[in-house]
Amino acid sequence: MITAPRPRRIDRDVFHEDEEPQRTYPGDVRRWATGEPYRLAREECQEGPLIPTAVETQARGEALLLDALLSEYGLHRPALTGGPFGIIMVTPRTHEILIRVTPRQLPRWTATVLRTVPTGAALVWSTEERGIALTLAEARVVLVGTTESDWRAAIDRTERSAGQPVSARAHDDRIGYLAPIVPLLSATLRRVHLLTDSEVSSPTVELLIAEHRGEPCLYDATSGAPSAIPLWQSVAAPLELWPSAYRSATAVDVRGAIGRLMSEADDGLGVLAQDVSEALCKLAGVPAVPLTLRAAQLALSVAEEVLADPRFVSLFDGGGWAAKRRRDLDLAWVAHTEEAVTPPGAERLVEAFTGDLDMLGMLTLSEEHALTDSLTAAGELEEDVSAIAQGTLIRLLDWALAAATRSATPWAWCPSEGSKSLHSNAPTSDPDGILQLKAEANSFAVSVTAPSLRESQYVHTWEECDAPSRAAAILLAESAARTAGIAMHYVRDPQKGRLLLPRPVDQRTDLTTAGVILAAHADAIFDFEDLASMLSRLRYRADTAANASEGHWRRQAAVPDDPHDYTHSVLGDVQVWCGTPGTHDGEPANTALPDSPEYRRHLAQHGAAMDPFVTCYLTAAAEVEDAKDFDDRHRAGVTALRNADLEHLADSDPRPIDQRVMTAITAIPLDANEIEAWYEVYFEE
């Protein structure tokens, strides 16, 4: 059985650095992605791949189902829904998929399934020994363990409240619209349990479909910002869990792809490398000398073998392998696993390289101007040059795969007048604006220009990082652009933490404390422990003693030309120092208390929330009329918590409350001088 840490597709586990390889069992690896019991998983993968690929008709129905589930569940907490999208486990087979749904989620599933049925058509279902068998767009989906009586009862409850069925035209158009990502959607549903992996550190899950350059893309916004990397790559799952093609892979001209890329990068700006090995070295930022040229030639051959293998067709998903190189830039939103995934074929490449590894490693150090720094006083190298050489080989393979898996509709890059940089633009529909890409000799930048962006940030730079070459900058920029448009829905103003694209709030929005919490990503919820960690600091940073009715932020009346507003109440200071979205002078929430509908609306618009204990404390602290300083407001907040029904407050939070927090709340001191000692006892120890 697999024990933590699980074997991942990273260098340390792939090449078994400093330890013996850990033995794993196929059934245990499979259940990592499916959630099945070990015995069932072992039985299901005795022959063939660990997770079989659905045939084409089956994949279309599964894609339609996951598409509907994304709309139904949106941002949600698997701990509260019994699993991602209410799914306990899946058993994927070539011509069907078995899904066990949490019983209490059955009404949401019936509503979801009914909405996928075209107007005038009936949902096709039957009762089997294992459960309820559904037919969705020619796909067979079996809800294991669901009885006929439970299914009928759920349908009766949801038919009256569910949205109207889609028209037949809309249904057909949706299937056609999803066509480019049908294999990706089906493969994701078949590996949905990876969303519960330890590398997915957030207790919230959010997958969504949005357009990029006119085509649908699947994004994973679980970490609070969208990533286009497929789930199995994002958590660095072993190659055995990667989906294969249900038909032979299409031949890819790796060398031609690199040649075209270099031509674009150097058009009018340099000389095209005639030898593809030399071009790959230039692309990867590796010096082109006989030893590295041999390595590049081998990397090209391995890349061709990998891309001809149907097991690795998902290298093209999410815009191609270039996103993997963006993981090396320490961008938190690119993938769940911090360490970069080792590409398929890496073992073959390292084993087949017959050159001098130590010399290749020293050459790499020399190129990075780190060779002399790596020498000890005795003249010996501190660095593991063989490992560095191995990294160079993998880097060459990475860039070969990145160039070959580039989008089939590349961008039109043009040189800037009077500059050596290249530019490319494309429209984005949500928000309505322009994607602007820039590639220079050793860096790239991607920005979004849209009039709908708030907080005076009509032009927002999404990514701006270094690159080993201009050609690499092109690949990285195109990869970053894939997420740039949809990312504007998650980007916050650095001054007040407000979303640049506030979320719509209407009559259907749940503005209860629980509703606002459930709609917020985990890292955007201000919990009592967060407040406790800041109380002693707020005491010295909260310069104002004004109450809420005077405004949390106010413009300076004495300086009418100053367009900015400044903190004026204790809640304004909390917004600044604790990272909750700030209000603007003139907004209804700017004079509202935290427990008011106006303030909860403000939080909902900016994808944030406060737990009920924080709300109780800050409401009392903010409404004191005769407070002289922060200490007075702190005493009011503590008194309110002491007088409150804590169990009732806990019930208004849909998440489980740690008993340690409840105990700490009952012991919070009135005297602000005792805050630090209290915090150490209940939260640090």
TrEMBL record:
This is SUKH-4 immunity protein of toxin-antitoxin system. It comes from the Bacteria. It comes from Streptomyces virginiae.
